[in-house]
Amino acid sequence: MNKPVIIQENLLESRVCVTWLDSCGFINTDLDEVALAECKSEGVVSALNDDMIVLRSSIYTDSETGDYTALPLGCITGVEML
What is the percentage of the chain residues whose pLDDT exceeds 70? Predict the structure, then answer.
């Protein structure tokens, strides 16, 4: 099990690359092939709370409407500032 990554609140509005583990489903597969998938998502940290980090990948310039990814903190294995 990975140690939880602590994400600092001072990363709000910073551009980051988050490495995280995604759940996967396997059908008709040997147990030793079952694993989580490592993923990387890039964006601007728009929100952070006890449960999740929210990355913004795009936004309309006249509003807060845009494209966001919410990642559970327990799935995150690393955060790198870009």
Answer: 95
